[in-house]
Amino acid sequence: MIFIVIRIDIRPEKREDFLAGITKYSAQVREEPGNLMFSCFASVERPDEYAVLANYVDQAAGEAHVSSAHAQWFFGWLPSVVATVPRIVYQELPPGVDWSEMGEVVLER
């Protein structure tokens, strides 16, 4: 499984453009075979900071995503709305490693 986190700092005057573009792009990515999750979140402390979380079943799915027409559009469009080059954490996890429960949190029964 591939796990990706991207930090995106946008230009304040481009917020509406960014939100429209990321909404369109998110819907397209979620339809890809091999995509497990794709979500964009706004920072509660910094109004111009967003985080994108993505999961793909494997490297082949990630490569198919990067070569898709909508990803190529997104990579070309993103510089028009960002304040800085986005930062990424890319982690390929070994087979069988997946989301697990957070041990520090115990539900009340």
Automatic annotation (TrEMBL):
Gene3D superfamilies according to UniProt: 3.30.70.100
Keyword Oxidoreductase annotated: yes
Gene Ontology MF terms in the entry: monooxygenase activity
Keyword Oxidoreductase attributed: yes
UniProt entry keywords in alphabetical sequence: Monooxygenase, Oxidoreductase
Domain ABM: 2-90
Matches recorded under InterPro entries: ABM_dom, AI-2_Isomerase_LsrG, Dimeric_a/b-barrel
Pfam families per the UniProt record, alphabetical: ABM
Name of the protein this chain belongs to: Antibiotic biosynthesis monooxygenase
Organism: Pseudonocardia hydrocarbonoxydans
